[in-house]
Specification:
Helix content is 26%, strand content 27%. It contains 12 helices and 19 strands. The protein is of the alpha+beta class. Strands 11, 12, 13, 14, 15, 16, 17, 18 and 19 form a 9-stranded mixed sheet that branches. Strands 1, 2, 5, 8, 9 and 10 form a 6-stranded mixed sheet that branches. Strands 4-3-6-7 form a 4-stranded antiparallel sheet, with no helix packed on it.
């Protein structure tokens, strides 16, 4: 199909430019189920926006109508945020007709000898020279790093200023992005859990007589180390990537909400077991709006580890349903009162630990939190509501089972998720 547009030549005379209609369709394979709600932005000639949307739950294809010869690419994830938009990926020059760009997820590290822009998604490449309209691209951990911006301290400060954070908090969170973190292998911290508590720590002294320390656990970086070779730091990427390359890809809204809630709840230690990670779990961690907390400490003595088996979660939920039914009765028999007392006693040992409740309560009140998933309660939207039996982690769905041993925090950044 062709169409004609009148244009003016340099001399001012009318000429006819013939355009051939074309379609560019990006198809995501393998990782599709984990890319639900991944934002994408299709662009022409590097900057002109043709489409801005999210992948649907069942969607593996995004398409746009263009003209043959147009230079078309796609921006993904956090890089669609207006303050970024730096990396155009899987770019092609459209052939006439239908162009299919198949993007396949690849786990592990790009072979060092194969390292180039095409290998990690800067461009798509023809399946074969004689195959018009057939393209392919690869989605590696390094590709995720490419379109998951590492925030600078100035960018973090700008975001936090926009949400009304105090100067003190802006300065504190900026330290994260300046890599002003301490190593966390000192003996006094190792004694608290019998092993090294983490590889990095940040001490917050906003309440002088009750400071809070944030630890980044070593395990938080496993997926990054397994799937990233160099994060585009140089043409010849180093074997060891500084941890700030991973820590700095988490949204400052995530750190701000998580750290402030800990200070407000007077928690001595918060241990982060996962942040930005490219190749495992939902899109939340992959785009930098997710944090996992697996350990809380209060007063240097009382340890409260977040953990709950699926069996206990199911038992707790069933008993609470019975409790709700009995409590809703306008009158109860002596036998029913006895049953109610028994149920309450039975669930007491299965209830959320007080330290976790204190922390989660503060998180719920933050306008910068969108989701909270924990061993005891799950809230996918609007977490700032009273805890209800219907919101309990029942240990049944895959998402409930995944969150049986840690607290997941999703930051509220509509420009990313």
């Amino acid at each position: 199909m062709t169409q004609s547009n009148l244009v003016l030549s340099a001399e001012g005379t009318e000429q006819v430019a013939t355009l051939t209609a074309s379609t560019v369709r990006y198809e995501f394979a393998h990782a599709t189920s984990k890319l639900t709600s991944l934002k994408y932005r299709i662009v022409k000639d590097g900057t002109e926006q043709l489409k801005l949307d999210k992948l649907g739950a069942d969607g593996r294809t995004v398409a746009v109508r263009v003209n043959a010869g147009d230079r078309i690419g796609i921006q993904l994830g956090a890089d669609t945020k207006p303050m970024f938009r730096r990396q155009v990926l899987y770019e092609i020059v459209a052939d006439s007709g239908v162009n299919i760009v198949k993007i396949s997820e690849r786990r592990g590290k790009v072979d060092l000898n194969a390292w180039n822009d095409d290998a990690v998604g800067k461009h798509a490449f023809k399946v074969a020279p004689d195959k018009a309209g057939q393209w392919q691209g690869q989605l590696w951990g390094d590709t995720w790093a490419l379109f998951s911006p590492k925030y600078t301290a100035l960018e973090a400060a700008s975001i936090l200023e926009d949400v009304g954070a105090s100067d003190e908090w802006i300065a504190l969170i900026s330290r994260v992005y300046e890599d002003d973190l301490d190593d966390a292998g000192e003996l006094q911290y190792a004694q608290l859990r019998g092993t090294l508590t983490g590889v990095k720590r940040l001490r917050i002294e906003m309440v002088p007589d009750d400071p809070t320390t944030i630890f980044w656990e070593a395990s938080a970086f496993n997926n990054c180390r397994e799937n990233i070779r160099g994060v585009y730091m140089s043409a010849d990427p180093p074997a060891t990537v500084p941890l700030i390359e991973y820590i700095g890809r988490v949204s400052p809204l995530c750190y701000y909400a998580a750290f402030k809630a800990a200070v407000d709840a007077r928690i001595d230690e918060v241990h982060l077991s996962s942040g930005w990670r490219p190749m495992i779990g939902s899109v939340l961690h992959r785009v930098g709006v997710g944090l996992d907390v697996n350990y809380l400490l209060d007063d240097g003595l009382k340890m409260d580890r977040v953990a709950m088996s699926s069996q206990n979660a199911q038992d707790r939920y069933r008993k609470h349903v019975q409790i709700d039914e009995l409590e809703s009765m306008t009158s109860r028999t002596p036998e029913q009162n006895e049953k109610l007392a028994q149920l309450r006693a039975q669930v007491a040992s299965l209830e959320e630990k007080s330290l976790v409740t204190a922390y989660r309560t503060m998180l719920k009140q933050s306008p910068h939190i969108r989701q909270l998933f924990a061993p005891w309660f799950m809230r996918a939207t609007n977490p700032n509501v009273e805890d209800r039996t219907g919101d309990m982690n029942r240990g049944q769905s895959r998402n409930e089972q995944i969150h049986n041993d840690h607290l997941h925090i999703t930051a509220n950044d509509p420009e990313i998720y």
